[in-house]
Amino acid sequence: MDHPIRFAALRRRVSAGCAALLLPALASGTGARAAPSPSPSPSPSGVGDPGRLDPRITG
Predict the structure, then answer these.
(1) Alpha-carbon distance 32 to 48, whole Å?
(2) What's the predicted TM-score (pTM) here?
(3) Tens digit of pLDDT for each residue in 37-58?
(4) What pLDDT, on the 0 to 100 scale, is given for residue 52?
(5) Dihedral through CA 7, CA 10, CA 14, CA 16, nearest 10?
(6) How far apart are CA 29 and CA 52, in angstroms?
(7) What is the DSSP code string of the chain?
(8) For 5-42, how does the pLDDT look when each residue is reduced to its tens digit (9 = 90+)?
(9) Rg over CA atoms, the chain
(10) How far apart are CA 27 and CA 33, in angstroms?
(11) Burial code of 31-58, b = ≥16 C-beta within 10 A, e = fewer?
(12) What phi and psi values does residue 34 have, to the nearest 5 degrees?
């Protein structure tokens, strides 16, 4: 005859192990489906482009 205390402890360990494996699997799956961030569109005059100076600036 199986002891109810041992059975409960075993069931808790199995539940904790399943939760420990399931949590990272779900967390990594949600990050993989995230929408990509939009790339900045180039402006025709160069204003607002961090790599170029405003043409009104004179040296």
Answers:
(1) 31
(2) 0.42
(3) 777 665 555 455 566 777 787 6
(4) 73
(5) 110
(6) 39
(7) ---HHHHHHHHHHHHHHHHHHHHHHHHHHHHHTPPPPPPPPPPTT-TT-TTS--TT---
(8) 788 899 999 999 999 999 888 877 665 566 667 776 65
(9) 29
(10) 11
(11) eeeeeeeeeeeeeeeeeeeeeeeeeeee
(12) -70, 145
AA identity, residue 51: G
Phi first, then psi, for residue 12 (nearest 5°) are -65, -40
Cβ contact 47:54 at 8 Å:
yes
